[in-house]
Amino acid sequence: MLNYFVTDEHRTCVVLAITLSSIAASVALAEDEYFDYEREHWAFVPIAACTTPTFEGEEYERWSRTPVDAFVLRQLVDRQLAPSPEAARAVLLRRLTFQLTGLPPTPQEVAAFVNDDAPDAYERLVDRLLASPHYGEHWAQHWLDVVRYAETEGFEYDAHRPGAWRFRDYVIQSLNDDKPYDQFVREQLAGDELTPNDHDSLVAAGFHRLGAVRRNAGNAEVAFSRNEVLTERTDAIGATFLAMTVGCARCHDHMFDPIRQTDYYRLQAFLASSFEYDVELADEDEKKAWRERSEAVEAEVKRLKDQLKDAPAEDEKRLLAELNAAQAKMPAPLPTISSVKHDPTQRTQIHLLERGDPDQPREPLKMRPLGVLLPEGTPGLPDDFATPRTYLADWIAAAKNPLTARVIVNRLWQYHLGAGLVTTPNDFGINGDLPSHPELLDYLANELVEGGWQLKPIHRLILLSSIYRQSSEYNDAFHDVDPNNRWIWRFNRRRLAANEIRDAMLAAAGTLNLKARGPSVIAPVDQELIDLLYKPSQWEVTPDEREYHRRSIYLIAKRNLRLPFMEVFDQPDLQTSCARRESSTHSPQALELLNGTLSNQLAEAFAVRLQLEAGASAEDQVELAYYLATGRPPSEGERVASISFLKEQPLREFALAMFNLNAFLYME
User: Fold this and answer.
1) pTM for the full model?
2) pLDDT in the model for residue 32
């Protein structure tokens, strides 16, 4: 039986048994039946009520600040490991500030916290950061990574979706408001069905529009394109909310998990009557005026294209220039919500597809959630069910669903501790990892549900724990026992993500523009990159230069062009769900920080700030630079080396060097 307590040594045997039985399962069982062992996989069993472990001894009692500590400590004690000492106050402040707001602490915040002797100083800091509007901006990026957020459609044309940025703002606001997670899920899956006249709900349902879309020119294969869209959306739902690789069952029964091919298309059937819907936020007069302007431009474009067909070679260059100029006159799209709508009259009939091929349909299938989580023989819904995605959303967001709460608290744990309790956050299946602390995972899931699905209390529970406050101090003996820090005997040091590095550079330089919300920013890039786009007009730079220094989350998320600085520091490719950003180390990163346009421009601004705020004293400049870049004063060795450097090099070179310090790039 596969459950919580299967050890890693058993994994090979279990996977082999499931693989060998996959063929037999389709023969031995009826379509809606599942083996007992399939239903007993740890992620499918109900969330357990877990008793907090207890310990004898004052040392353990003093160390355990929250139930989180007791669950982790139990595993450490069993393996003869021990937690690391608490990190220094300045380290904790920088860690918390980056993790909750994505920004570095100011020198004033460092001084205030380090010198605050009140017993609740740490708790007040956590509460202040959770209440900051920057919390939503930072944590929204985590969610946008998971839901494959982009503002363009990808593939060859990579067309921009008008108003796509509204989804980003919806996520930011929802997180700042601590909207219950079950409501957050329902709005994204079925907001247009729940409250079709509410703009926020329509924006939320734009979740279904976030994936890449292939727009075929000429002889479009309509059925194939529709199948691609439904497939992408189904896969995204499985990965995002359920942490299940449902897409592996598109062409055949899942090789590892109890997801039949029929399960896949039954799940897809919930989306069969959902279609793209762009809601124009304009009155009739505005729409009429826009149509008149666009029709005039389209007529001129058509005239020039017709001339080009038969134009002599000597006129082609002139006509192409006129054509580009005419196309540039196309009026900007009207304010728009990029959403979906339920249209039963156009519903796509869902069939089981032979090897996933839309040209080889087999029997039609009805809507139904994953069968392994349902009672045997649960029937599907009729095709004319009035609100199919609402039904799906209610099933996913139900308190009794064993996956949903576990998946989201595991994501929170991962972003705070560096690795999830399940280290495969998008795969809770057989081929994914086993939970390191299963009782803790269930404890957190229960706390989430019982607390009204609000996420901030779960953050607080984790952040107030002693396990979170550990230093990242290395221990040879403990490393020999647990080289991957699976049992969390220290804090996992990590490099900042691309958006955090860029925002920290802007903050240190004093040029960060904290303007919130609104249309995304298109910053200047090399013309060579723009020339690679389908149309150069897809990269019309934002005219206001002050916008270029806004937080990274407000930069346009374009699939076919990522800013080189962001790309070199492992920004996701925006094609599929990114559950965990990579953190690579390679020479182009150093080259970008030393020679890149952004780093050199900000180093210049950083130097100006140091001169203005610290004066002409090299010692004062060094002191301020370290506080701004690393959240602490320089060590004596750093102070001596920095002052010596400034005797021979200009201040801007010193500022540039600060951006290349490990103490700047890493959070410990």
Assistant:
1) 0.92
2) 67
